[in-house]
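User: Teach me something about this protein's shape.
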Amino acid sequence: MCCRDLIPNGNLFFVGIWISVLLLLCSSALAQKTASPPSLSPTPVPAPDPDYMNLTVLLSVAGPFHTFLNKILSTKVIETLQNQANNTEEGVTIFVPKDSAFSSLKKPSLSNLTSDHLFSCVHVFIIFI
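Assistant: First, the predicted structure itself:
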């Protein structure tokens, strides 16, 4: 006995199509059930801006930035930065080198600068927005 004998009128071709479609639908339905939905991590909400930004404290605790902090304190550039950060709608971006960047310099390189030269050097790291 052959499969053709079980299906009347020789519709074996159409039965094969239906079985293929049924298998395709079942396999995609199973794949959807077993696949876990993508996990969406919640987007962190930015902290509110403080009323007053103390850049001296920020640079003291944020990293090893003591050398740069001492330079902007000695040149009084910190006052300009504080004013820009706290009293204007514009911002300020400071690219602060770590203490290790200064330790790789030859010792007299910064100590031989005049206050005007040091003031200019410090401003290289600052962008007023």
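Now, about its shape. The helical segments are 3-6, 12-34, 55-62, 66-74, 77-87, 99-103, 108-111, 115-123. The chain has eight helices and two strands. If you'd like, I can walk through any region in more detail.
User: That's plenty for now, thanks!
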